Amino acid sequence: MSLSSNSSSKGKQPVFMPLYKQVEEQIKSRILNKEWKPGDVLPNEFSLADEFGVSQGTVRKSLNALTMQGTLIRRQGVGTFVAEQSDKQENTSQFPIVRNGRRPEKTEIAFIRQTVKFAGLALQTQLKLDSSDKVLEIVRKRIFRQQICAVEYIYLPLKYFPELSNNAKLPDDIHQFLQTQYSMTIHNLVDEVRATPSNQDVSQWLGVKPNTPLIEVTRICSSLDETPFEYRLIYSQTDNFHYRHEGTY
Amino acid sequence: MSLSSNSSSKGKQPVFMPLYKQVEEQIKSRILNKEWKPGDVLPNEFSLADEFGVSQGTVRKSLNALTMQGTLIRRQGVGTFVAEQSDKQENTSQFPIVRNGRRPEKTEIAFIRQTVKFAGLALQTQLKLDSSDKVLEIVRKRIFRQQICAVEYIYLPLKYFPELSNNAKLPDDIHQFLQTQYSMTIHNLVDEVRATPSNQDVSQWLGVKPNTPLIEVTRICSSLDETPFEYRLIYSQTDNFHYRHEGTY
DNA sequence: AAGTGGTCTAGACCACGGA
DNA sequence: CCGTGGTCTAGACCACTTC
After folding, report:
1. Is the CB of B19 within 7 Å of strand D?
2. Are residues A63 and A115 in the same domain?
3. Same domain, A122 and A171
4. What does the pLDDT average to over A216-223?
5. Is the model's pTM score more than 0.70?
6. Quick one: DSSP state of residue B169?
7. Structural domain span for residue A75
8. Which nucleotides of strand D come closer than 7 angstroms to any CB of the protein?
9. Which long-range contacts does A120-125 make (Cβ < 8 Å, 24+ apart)?
10. Which residues of B fall within a CB distance of 8 Å from A88?
11. pLDDT tens, B28-41?
12. What's the CA A44/C1' D2 distance, rounded, in angstroms?
């Protein structure tokens, strides 16, 4: 196989895409097509170079770029793999609510309930659904050492995950589950944080007085092809916890 | 000049540092020493390669790494520059409070007051100060089109910025100012978000009823050498605004 | 036209992990 | 031991900016 020449007449702007970028896109699309699934090993650099008709150094540049984006994992002496959910959780603290003065810690999960519902308005707009689409709603608590730290509402569209309509309880690690069942991994996410008075339900679950100020984190997770596939609401009191984000410029 | 051989007997673990990493550290330290200041142009790749006694490709790898960390800016046909504050603000949305359903937008600033104080407890721990250290406190409002969106308390230690003790009002773009005056640029930051009832002062400034639930963002900015040099508290109501964070895995 | 960074190649050698 | 990715080099050519 060989890559396209550098000028294209499709768009208005002729698109100049360097070889390493083209290789990157090719690899990405094979992952999207599930030719290569999470955990799979890719051919080595020289095989890929042959296949794409470029030099090994060019392939290397693509693989390293995808590794930095978190799509691939490279292990010296072993090979290059499609990243699994578990690989990603090491780097970025999956769950953003942490104890004051601490780094992210592992949480326990206490299941409350799960139901299939029609998508409400917020879900329709954020997950690109319409009013006839259904979602699985999961409600559960996050706990650090007997201390209830947050309540989560998780919404998964049946459009993408049809088998969830049966009432089998999902495992605690939902993203792990979605990855093994649907080869769906998080590629990026958007968090919006607001302050809101605690409502009846959440107050009970968190063990706080109604109208206590809580933070409400709205999290939307998207896959590699930019499909938003999960909507999540997280409620937490912030006497002992906070939402945390650390960034490098 | 030439770099150290790959094995060192200083630490407990013999440290193997690849050449490109050593070059990276060298360049970083020259920036810290203010040999190269924000906005300065670096020598070209071949000059640096000569100077460090490595090949041009190795220097390139270092420069690209530092570019991705936001420390340098490279412009084809022109040269490689030490990043300025203005370069950084383009990539990462400096100010994290945005209107609902929007991307980050430019805000106006309304000055309220500024005072020199002794550092309180939170400041002492977070900025590594002691009780005799003084800070400049700046209080001001953030405004989107006549709509007050947030109140900011900004704390700058006189330890790092001694000339601020005179009562001259600082310009709106504080980071721009700190960069030109002190060659101090943000390298990373930590945000902690909590929910809190609005107090008397903030209620007035934001124009909300006392005890309205607000978000409180505690932001600590650090420089390239990991010195935390600014502590900031941001208060905002979240009927029309929210704290936003977008991340790629 | 001169000088910069950007892309691409080809090949050498090293370090690591597993059989 | 072999095969993998990691580092490093040297050199060619391209694209962009400035003069």
Report:
1. yes
2. no
3. yes
4. 97
5. yes
6. P
7. 19-83
8. 3-11, 15-18
9. A122/A231, A123/A155, A123/A157, A123/A231
10. 249
11. 999 999 999 999 99
12. 14
